[in-house]
Amino acid sequence: FDSVSTWSQTQLHQQKRVVVIGDFNSTAWSVRLRRLEKDSQLVNSQRGFGFQPTWSAEFPPLMKIAIDHCFHDQSLVT
Predict the structure, then answer these.
(1) Are 31 and 39 in contact (CB under 8 A)?
(2) Tens-place pLDDT, residues 43-78
(3) 20 near 42, Cβ under 8 Å?
């Protein structure tokens, strides 16, 4: 998480567009994920779209959790 934050800040300072996407194995309410969002200066693409569960496909909807995430710089819109 810290490495992603550091990398994204470096890219943003070089005025590059940034997208970080993947299986973070962390829920949206995880302290580490929230810190990543804050420290990386990236936008969580789930914000404003409600709960978006991604794991596990075979579970009923109410038992799924969101552990896959997409963060992007503010120049992009979701």
Answers:
(1) no
(2) 999 888 877 888 887 888 788 888 999 999 999 988
(3) yes
Phi and psi at residue 64, to the nearest 5°: -80, 155
In this structure, are residues 59 and 43 in contact, taking their beta carbons and an 8 Å threshold?
no
Q: Are strands 19-23 and 68-72 parallel, antiparallel or unpaired?
A: antiparallel
The pair phi, psi for residue 73, each rounded to 5°, is -75, 170
Given the structure tokens 């005025």, which residue do they identify? 15
Distance, CA of 51 to CA of 47 (rounded, Å): 9
pTM of the model: 0.84
Helices (H) and strands (E) in the chain, counts: 2, 3
